[in-house]
Amino acid sequence: MIRHDPLAVRVAAIEPLSATLKRLTLESADGGALPIGSAGAHVSLILEGGDRPFRNAYSLVSMPGERGCYELIVRRTAGSRGGSAFIHERLGEGSVIGATVPHNLFPIQRHARKHLLIGGGIGITPLLSYLPALRQGGERLELHQISARDEVPLFENLLAPHAAHDVHVHAGRGALDLSALLARQPLGTHVYVCGPAALMDHVEAAAAALGWPASRVHRENFGAAGGDPFTLRLARSGREIAVGPDQSMLDALEAAGVPVPSLCRGGACGECLTKVTGGVPEHRDHYLTDLEKAEGALVMPCVSRAKNDLLVLDL
Amino acid sequence: MSIAFKTDEIFRDGFRYANSDAAILRFPFPFVEDSYMYSVNIEPHVRGGPTPAFDAVLDIDEHYIGECRERALVLAQDPNRCMVLPHMMAAQWDTLELIMESLAADYPDHFQLGKDGDRWTWRNRLLNIEDSFVFGAPETLPFEPFEYITRQMQGDFTLQDQRDGNLYMDGGMVTSQADWSLEFDLGMTFHEWHGPVPLAHDLGVFDRALQYLLRLQYGRPVRRLNWTMTVNPRLDTSPENYPLWGPDRTTVTPENVGDKLHLRVELQTLYRLPRSNAILFSVRAYLASMNELARVPKWGRRLHRVLRDIDPALEDYKGLGRYRRMAIEHLAQFDDGAPTGKGIAPEVDVLPA
Amino acid sequence: MNDQGIKSRPAYAPLARDPVGRTHLLVADSMAIPHAAFAPGTSLGDYDECWTVEGHSRAIPSAMPDARMHGFRSASHLLIALRRRLAMEYMGFRLYAIGTEAFLWDVAAAAEAAGMGKEEYALFHAGSGARRVLCVHCRTLNQGVTTNLVACGGCGAALFVRDHFSRRLNAYMGVQVDAEMPGERPDVEEIYR
Predict the structure, then answer these.
(1) Residue among C91, C93, C116, C119 with most chain A CBs within 10 A, to mutate
(2) Do C79 and C159 belong together in one domain?
(3) Are residues C94 and C158 in the same domain?
(4) Residue B276 lies in a domain
(5) Predicted pLDDT at A4
(6) pLDDT, chain C, mean
(7) Searching chain A, which residue's CA lies closest to the CA of residue B168?
(8) Is C82 contained in some domain?
(9) Looking at residues B42-59, what average pLDDT do you find?
(10) Which pLDDT band, with edges at 50, 70 and 90, does C90 fall under?
(11) Closest Cα of chain B to C166: distance in Å?
(12) Distance separating alpha carbons of residues A282 and C25, to the nearest angstrom
């Protein structure tokens, strides 16, 4: 039950869906069962290309609960020199790459009386995993996909297995009156939106203007773990320790052989509290008070980071 | 490691219960230092800890058969000790899967799980159970999946749904609790069901714990220890049956306190469930008498000091009022004033005879 | 009122129309709505409709399609109409309730059953402070309890009324006060009026 990132996965199949879209099927490199992915979950792929690994998050589109493989759809972003170009150009069937355990920050709300799904472009991916899960539970749903005109057939194809339901593909944002759609939803509806930030912002704003509470509006979110790399200096020894983009300060200190007492590793218990003597912390914990956070003299290295390149700790 | 399972234990009037030396040495003693106050004492539930009670994902021990039998008795007398709200069916299957997979992996001599696609076969050799069923089809099991599998577990379980930035207790199997009612608390938010706990609200403990749990990730379970005291080795100290066990508290005397008064420790583990995004909360209770625990010299000293110095509000909440003085006077004989080592490990491999 | 320090007991604040809502329905279990039910500067006139309980057997909601005021025979009569109304409403709807605690949480249960969340309904306690008390031992619901101790109508236990409140059951918890030592009880006081 205690899973260790990253998982080693093998690319079992790559299927081109269009000039810019590919569907990847990943299996466990050791042939065993994978950790369970649920509707709305994502994994981050860790791709060793060039001087530093790329780390890109993708929604799972495989059947929720499937443990034999993960499926995801990757769009090659224009001008990309990062992960999506790497996947499109350099990844082949049989390649072994790293993947994180699925994490779900966009889950189905089991209490909803109705589920209104709105996708924009490739933002359809998490909603593709919603459809079988909602249908299995006999839930009431309505889906609207907004697509560039030339990609309408592509998305109609992806949604074809669900065509018997209240599922619609629209050519361009202008083809769908979002306010009218939101205004006619019955009490107890939840709306889920995934797509370009402008679309998600628009749905949020239109829903709020029509009196939808914020708790009924859900937008895809891959979370903000990690951040920019920075350097720690230990005031007592003058030693410097690099903190990587996917590494916590606590992890970096431990890896460098500097023991810091810790317990929850999630910013709640206060055990790893450390004094700051230089630099400005970026607080992400739930332990320090707002005043303490503003003063910046204390930091919880298990979750917090630095606002600038250097943070000096009283260690 | 082989476990010598007891088969004749009784956890209600007519009590028959004792811990072997091995069971005492593996006891998850809850006091890391010589005093106690609430804190957010949560840590990752990694394999291994200060005693072997932390070695498995879900721990079973020599009391397994008796505790499952006691659970069946409680449910026969009060079926509402197991309730799950209808929107939690995915979480029910998540629970069944987690428990079956971890038991089969950690105790392969006693539990086996066979899978042929969605057709699963479960063998529990300790309780002589063998069932084939279709995963995802509740009608193929004799009970709903959550009740089916938690009837075969030591310890209580609750299911928390996550929505609106809160956790709601929307299901549970609660037959061996420290004086709280599942039926009454079902559907409550995190702060509501912790409402009766003194002090901790003002310390901000629940605000921080809630924020932490909302971010709990699949594959990264966490754990903490909690404790109270129970007169007699009674598992069902529920509010429902308080008229039955309340009088026990008046039966403690200076002569019997060492054997009658038990420390009740909960090894609480929390798991993010993958299909439902719910949280499974496992409350595994361990009972040991004062005299059993005092056979570990460090624990005898420390228990004396913790009870002597406890906050009066906690004394009341944990129901210690009627017998705390007797317990302190009894435990004083085990406290020679020597310093105790940090942490909960017993620091002995063998108990004195 | 005494405070046992238990945080599950509901707290209520005066009502104000939620400015982002599109339709606003106010329900009350009495025709006597106190001014204290409304936040300063607001009033009954802010709501699109107001449903009240008249408490006589000839009361009937108005048949006029655009009537703002409707009277009902009892709280039960009102709740039947409310459940039907919620089933036909749209997102953006807001519900407000004024009345005894038992009425408020019956309204809240109807709202939750219709899929509404805490941001979509608001409650204000007015009228009797009597409590519904669930005997945790025999599960009998004891209505109209005004005292700190009550003899359970089901099993006869002398129940202490805890401040622990279940919104789902719409009741406070009653626990036998003298289970440990029969007859060891505090004095009876009338505190929930």
Answers:
(1) C91
(2) no
(3) no
(4) yes
(5) 67
(6) 95
(7) A111
(8) yes
(9) 93
(10) very high
(11) 6
(12) 45
Assess whether C116 and C137 both reside in one domain. no
Q: Which residues contact A197 (CB under 8 A, 6 or more apart)?
A: none
pLDDT tens digit sequence for A162-172:
887 799 999 98
Is A235 in CB contact (< 8 Å) with chain C? no
Residue B173 placed within a domain:
yes
Does residue C46 or residue A47 have the better pLDDT? C46
Partners of A266 on chain B (C-beta within 8 Å) are: 42, 212, 215, 222
Quick check: is B325 in a domain? yes
Mean of pLDDT values over B299-303: 96
* Tokens standing for residue C74: 């009892």
C184 in a structural domain: no
**Is the omega angle on the peptide bond into residue A132 within 30 degrees of 0, that is, cis?**
no
Range of the domain at B58: 30-334
pLDDT at C88 over 50: yes
Asked if C149 and C161 count as a contact pair (C-beta separation under 8 A), the reply is yes
- What pLDDT does residue A3 have? 66
Partners of B88 on chain C (C-beta within 8 Å) are none
> Same domain for C71 and C161?
no
* C149 and C165 share one domain: yes
H/E element, A233: strand A230-234
B172 has a pLDDT exceeding 90: yes
* B-chain residue closest to A6, CA distance: B219
Which pTM was predicted? Answer: 0.92
Instruction: State the nearest Cα–Cα gap between A65 and chain B, in angstroms.
Output: 6
Average pLDDT over residues C1-26: 88
The domain containing residue C172 runs over which residues?
131-176
Choosing among A36, A60, A101, A110, which should be mutated to test the B contact, i.e. which has the most B CBs within 10 A? A110
* Paired tokens of B179: 């004086």
| Residue after which a domain boundary falls, among C125, C142, C159 | C125
Q: Which domains does chain A have, with CATH numbers?
A: 7-99 (2.40.30.10), 114-219 (3.40.50.80), 230-313 (3.10.20.30)
Of the candidates B5, B72, B30, the one whose C-alpha atom is nearest the C-alpha of residue B293 is B30
In a domain, C192, yes or no: no
Quickly tell me which residue has 């026969």 as its tokens.
Answer: B76
Task: Note whether A70 and A34 are within 8 A (CB).
Answer: yes
Same domain, yes or no, for C85 and C157? no
What contacts B15, CB < 8 A, 6 or more positions away? B232, B233, B234
pLDDT score of A240: 95
Q: Which residue has the tokens 């604040």?
A: C13
Choose between A267 and A7: higher pLDDT.
Answer: A7
For A125, phi then psi, to 5°, come to -55, -50
Q: Supply the pLDDT for residue B57.
A: 96
Of B164, B201, B242, the CB nearest to C176: B242
Number of structural domains in chain C: 2
> Higher confidence at residue A54 or residue B163?
B163
Residue B165 lies in a domain: yes
Q: Is residue C77 part of a domain?
A: yes
pLDDT value of position A223: 61
Spatial separation of the C-alpha atoms in residues A291 and A41, rounded to whole Å? 35
Of B183, B194, B246, nearest to C180 by CB-CB distance is B246
pLDDT at C1: 41
Q: Which residues of B carry out catalysis? A: 224
Q: For C143-171, what is the mean pLDDT?
A: 96
- The number of domains in chain B is 1
Q: What phi and psi, each to the nearest 5 degrees, are found at residue A182?
A: -70, -35
